[in-house]
């Protein structure tokens, strides 16, 4: 794996932050993650602890966050991937939900919600996907009807990360259904609001410790003041912020490849078969050499996209490219790493099998492969 200190995209403060994140993960995350996978959820107290350590809303200014930038966010994302702590919904909370509120919320809204999110006292989710709609945000059927000083929200969402733990949800809904995509708005709903209900915790093939659920809105009345930005501009807001969401997925994929490449090298050097280590077989060395070459090529691209994003120059098509390439390579190489572990690769104790299963969602969420290709194709 690459020496992290040699990556020019990170500054000294990023490296110091990584030390703090690793210390927290070693103490508070790694020893307990297997139990959280069995439970199907990460305890809320873990979020509170992360908030006290300044690990949430890392790229937002104080008092809304810890005053860092996307480099700090990337460090935490990479440590999640390095440790295989796939149950942590911190990136969704900190790097997707909170930035929507910070970018489009009023001062009163930011003061009301973001300090609590930074402290881990209010866990965030975003409700985009609906049953039957998938990645097609233009086909959203959840509605928000204006009634005096309130909106009345009706509809259903599914595949919502942090859905069970969520205490604040940014809901993608139609305030003017007749306008299609031009009638989409973003409205914040807090847990406990009458009519807002959380459905079952969804059973997934991967990300076992991550709480993913359905959400239901039955005549949910929220103040008009809960609207983010302007009415009917939600689709524009979503498109503007999706580049960062896709980069988050790519950053995680690249570090996952590097971490499990090293784990596979270590395993094959120790495991013996037919009188020699598995690493001594030419096929093994060639597979790992090819993986290192591909991982290094991806690393250069991901870090360049990070560098661009730190100056807000990452374009939607480039973000689509890095997500498409990173997740495809992650799925391909983790499959090969699992194969090199033999039967032990299929056992949960070696992590590579879990990582392989967890990785599959990367080609679906944040915009599917097919959506990424469509975005790229528009530039041809």
Automatic annotation (TrEMBL):
<dbReference type="InterPro" id="IPR036250">
    <property type="entry name" value="AcylCo_DH-like_C"/>
</dbReference>
<comment type="similarity">
    <text>Belongs to the acyl-CoA dehydrogenase family.</text>
</comment>
<comment type="pathway">
    <text>Siderophore biosynthesis; mycobactin biosynthesis.</text>
</comment>
<feature type="domain" description="Acyl-CoA dehydrogenase/oxidase C-terminal">
    <location>
        <begin position="234"/>
        <end position="379"/>
    </location>
</feature>
<keyword id="KW-0560">Oxidoreductase</keyword>
<dbReference type="Pfam" id="PF02771">
    <property type="entry name" value="Acyl-CoA_dh_N"/>
</dbReference>
<dbReference type="InterPro" id="IPR046373">
    <property type="entry name" value="Acyl-CoA_Oxase/DH_mid-dom_sf"/>
</dbReference>
<dbReference type="InterPro" id="IPR050741">
    <property type="entry name" value="Acyl-CoA_dehydrogenase"/>
</dbReference>
<keyword id="KW-0285">Flavoprotein</keyword>
<dbReference type="Pfam" id="PF00441">
    <property type="entry name" value="Acyl-CoA_dh_1"/>
</dbReference>
<protein>
    <recommendedName>
        <fullName>Acyl-[acyl-carrier-protein] dehydrogenase MbtN</fullName>
    </recommendedName>
</protein>
<keyword id="KW-0274">FAD</keyword>
<feature type="domain" description="Acyl-CoA oxidase/dehydrogenase middle">
    <location>
        <begin position="125"/>
        <end position="220"/>
    </location>
</feature>
<dbReference type="InterPro" id="IPR037069">
    <property type="entry name" value="AcylCoA_DH/ox_N_sf"/>
</dbReference>
<dbReference type="InterPro" id="IPR006089">
    <property type="entry name" value="Acyl-CoA_DH_CS"/>
</dbReference>
<dbReference type="InterPro" id="IPR013786">
    <property type="entry name" value="AcylCoA_DH/ox_N"/>
</dbReference>
<dbReference type="InterPro" id="IPR006091">
    <property type="entry name" value="Acyl-CoA_Oxase/DH_mid-dom"/>
</dbReference>
<dbReference type="InterPro" id="IPR009100">
    <property type="entry name" value="AcylCoA_DH/oxidase_NM_dom_sf"/>
</dbReference>
<dbReference type="Pfam" id="PF02770">
    <property type="entry name" value="Acyl-CoA_dh_M"/>
</dbReference>
<feature type="domain" description="Acyl-CoA dehydrogenase/oxidase N-terminal">
    <location>
        <begin position="12"/>
        <end position="121"/>
    </location>
</feature>
<dbReference type="InterPro" id="IPR009075">
    <property type="entry name" value="AcylCo_DH/oxidase_C"/>
</dbReference>
<comment type="function">
    <text>Catalyzes the dehydrogenation at the alpha-beta position of ACP-bound acyl chains. This results in the introduction of a double bond in the lipidic chain, which is further transferred to the epsilon-amino group of lysine residue in the mycobactin core by MbtK.</text>
</comment>
